[in-house]
Design a protein that fits this description.
The protein is mainly alpha-helical. The chain has 6 helices and 4 strands. GO terms for molecular function: proton-transporting ATP synthase activity, rotational mechanism.
Length: about 250
């Protein structure tokens, strides 16, 4: 992204460029006239491939008593996500477990790849590979998907009477209730983006300053923080869906 700053020192003659500031570099793909961040798609496909591979390995030979490690791991993950959904949605949690689970796994694995893989060793024509969740476009997409899902959940359960919630507990609060639905995706996306970007920047700076010992505990702390961010996003998504379906806060 390039930003140019100009000073009109004499409007009748010309303009003098004071600065030419470039913020961030990206590897772009031009497809049908659209510029796409290639590095985000590459790592996102890698994350999706890892999730699909783990799912296939876990379900190739299903047994009532798990006999392979992959089935054990995936059953633990599914039970964990079911617990998140049930706590936030109550009895109607079952049909939303796949959505909440997909969000949780995608964010968790993206964050872990960003914290563990030395992406700087892979050179691109422009920019560099990193966790998809350190790109604001990814986090906004995930937040918008969550918003669309909880609107769909509310309309599916209550029909057009779902919109009565905007007039409760009093019609005076209509603007605030509408504004709340706009702030939810903003808070979801910027929280995840800010935390992951800050963690990666911290590790990068410390690696440059003290390349041997100091970055390791920071990376371990980053793994923990990345896991918490995935949990928070999935929990809030489940809570918003539960609020739409059950009508509770």
């Amino acid at each position: 992204m390039t930003s140019n700053l100009y000073l009109d020192y004499n409007p009748t003659i010309s303009t003098l460029p004071l600065a030419d500031l470039e913020v961030g570099k990206h590897f772009y793909w031009e497809i049908f006239g659209y510029s796409l961040h290639g590095q985000v798609f590459i790592v996102s496909w890698l994350v999706i491939g890892l999730i699909l591979s783990a799912s296939v390995l876990a379900t190739i030979t299903l047994n009532q008593v798990p006999r392979n490690n992959w089935q054990n791991i995936m059953e633990i993950v599914v039970e964990y996500v079911q617990g998140i959904a049930k706590n936030q949605m109550g009895s109607n949690f079952g049909e939303w477990v796949p959505f909440v689970g997909t969000l949780f796994l995608f964010i968790l694995i993206s964050n872990w790849l960003g914290a563990l893989v030395p992406w700087k060793l892979i050179h691109l024509p422009e920019g560099e590979l990193a966790a998809p969740t350190n790109d604001i476009n990814t986090t906004i997409s995930l937040a918008l998907a969550t918003s669309i899902t909880y609107f769909y959940a509310g309309l599916k359960k209550k029909g057009f009477s779902y919109f009565k919630k905007y007039f409760q507990p009093t019609p005076v609060l209509l603007p605030i209730n509408i504004l709340e639905d706009f702030t939810k995706p903003l808070s979801l996306s910027f929280r995840l983006f800010g935390n992951i970007l800050a963690d990666e920047l911290t590790v990068s700076v410390l690696t440059l300053l003290v390349p041997i010992l100091i970055p390791l505990p920071i990376m371990i702390l980053g793994l923990f923080a990345s896991s918490i961010q995935a949990l928070i996003f999935a929990t809030l998504a489940a809570a918003y869906i539960g609020e739409s379906v059950e009508g509770h806060h």
